[in-house]
Amino acid sequence: MKTCGAKTRSGDPCKNAPMANGRCRMHGGKSTGPPPEKMKGNKNAVVTGERETIWRFSDDERSWLSYVDRDVLIQLDHEIDLVTVRERRMLQRIDELTAGNEMGPVSVDRSRGEDANGQSRHETLHAEAKLERIQRIEEALTRVQNTKIKLLQAKFDVLSRIDKDDEETRGVLRELAQVIEFSKKQRDGEGD
Q1: Is the whole model's pTM more than 0.70, yes or no?
Q2: Domain containing residue 158
Q3: Does 106 map to a domain?
Q4: pLDDT in tens, 88-104
Q5: Residues 37, 42, 43: CA angle, nearest 5 degrees
Q6: In this entry, which stretches build a coiled coil (predicted)?
Q7: Pairing with 97, which of 114, 155, 159, 163 sits 20 to 30 Å away (CA)?
Q8: Is 52 contained in some domain?
Q9: Residue 81 within a domain
Q10: φ and ψ at 175, to 5 degrees?
Q11: How many CB atoms lie within 10 A of CB 66?
């Protein structure tokens, strides 16, 4: 019988069964990552880009950024629009899941026995997977709504510092305060 043969901490050869590469799962298994010299700029772990580390801008990004309006209120409005669209899409996903219109397969095909209610095991697992997806979306939706409230509050703060004597600004501030209050109630489940 073949063995791994790599040196263990004690100095003895490893006696585990080898994989195709000749080493066991502990001494030659899955990669532990890139070598240290390739670590900077490594994007292997980037999935959504939400928390991606940006070391520098490409020429294309620098060019694109020169066209971005730097006005604080315009930036805040843009972010509020994005969060509102994200919120709407998440609510649509929840509606589609509760209506039964699946968005992609749910892999729950296990044994086909029946549960105590006579429902097939597959149907039960499918319903549980659907419920888990809805719960994940609802949790993410709460985070998105919290972000929206923070953006609205930031816009309120900026506007309140601009010109408190201007009647139009006071009207916008009153409306924004109402929107913030409504958003908080909606997030907490009080508004319908």
Answers
A1: no
A2: 71-187
A3: yes
A4: 988 888 888 888 755 44
A5: 170
A6: 127-154
A7: 114
A8: no
A9: yes
A10: -65, -45
A11: 7
